[in-house]
Write a structure and sequence with these properties.
- The protein is of the alpha+beta class.
- The chain has a single domain, classed as Endonuclease/exonuclease/phosphatase (Deoxyribonuclease I, Chain A, 4-Layer Sandwich), CATH 3.60.10.
- Helix content is about 20%, strand content about 30%.
- The strands form two sheets. Strands 3-4-2-1-12-11 form a six-stranded mixed β-sheet.
- Helix 3 crosses helix 4.
- The longest helix has 15 residues.
- It is globular, with a radius of gyration of 18 Å.
- The N terminus and C terminus are likely disordered.
Length: about 270
């Protein structure tokens, strides 16, 4: 009965997806035999982007990793802007983290149906540069909702350092959501370290493998939320437009967080 008294707008549909710049992969050997597709444009990339946009259109906030903001391999298409336009998202922002000349760019991105109060690009620490966390705030004050979109390092040492940095960013956030490719599984020491230092939690007793997309057996992609946010549903979606599968979650926000400034947005774009 409690659910019926809650405003429908308290619910948020979240999607996190490492889109591999719009490239699908069918087997490990593709990384070698189709490696040229990572530096040259191919028609299938745009077909996949259209399918990803159609998928994203069913969500309120979408966090993306391995987006190309416009380079040779993407046909100089700003993929975040393209996905936002096709998916009907009024707000879009990408965080460019690594550029290899004009050949390829790597970025995190957010597509949102709600107007952020603030957006900040933060570089992650690590021996190998080129990774970042996209920090998005909805609302103001202690009840604001803080969203962090992240893509972590391949090595455990780098991930531990990066999640320590993330924990400091989250420290004062009462309501927080972390989504992205963490490159480690739910029971890993890295995630345990992050959860111990924050109010974040991950759905328990769920096996949600997201990688590789053609035969998923490892959960590298996660959506973590503060204990103040109620998880209604979480699932991995069987859409093989990348080498990762997308992970989706529906949550209910505390009323105070919602009314602090998270509300349906008029159509407009971020500066």
């Amino acid at each position: 009965m409690e659910r019926a008294t809650e405003p429908a707008l308290q619910r948020l549909r979240l999607l996190s997806y490492n889109i591999q710049s719009g490239l699908s992969t069918r087997r490990y050997s593709d990384y070698v035999t189709h490696s040229w597709r990572h530096v040259l444009p191919v028609p299938s990339r745009m077909v996949n982007l259209d399918a990803i946009a159609d998928l994203a259109a069913g969500y309120d906030i979408v966090g993306l990793q391995e987006v190309d903001p416009g380079s040779l391999r993407s046909g100089f298409v700003d993929q975040a802007a393209y996905l936002a336009a096709r998916g009907g998202f009024p707000f879009v922002h990408d965080q460019s983290n690594r550029r290899i000349g004009m050949i390829s760019h790597h970025a995190n991105a957010v597509l949102s149906r709600h107007r952020p109060s603030a957006i900040e690009d933060r570089k992650l620490p690590g021996l190998i540069k080129g990774r970042g966390v996209l920090c998005v705030r909805y609302g103001d004050g202690p009840e604001a909702l803080h969203l962090f979109i992240i893509h972590l390092a391949l090595g455990r040492r780098g991930r531990m350092q990066q999640l320590g940095f993330l924990a400091e960013l989250i420290a004062d956030a009462r309501h927080a959501i972390v989504m992205g490719d963490l490159n480690c599984h739910a029971g890993s020491p890295e995630i345990a370290h992050l959860l111990a230092r924050t109010s974040l939690a991950e759905p328990e007793a769920l096996h949600l493998p997201t990688f590789p997309s053609w035969a998923p057996n490892r959960q590298l992609d996660h959506i973590l939320v503060s204990e103040s946010i109620r998880v209604e549903r979480v699932e991995v979606l069987r859409h093989t437009y990348s080498d990762h599968l997308p992970i989706a979650m529906e949550v209910v926000l505390p009323a105070a967080a919602w009314w602090s400034g998270i509300a349906p947005a008029a159509a407009a774009s971020l500066p």
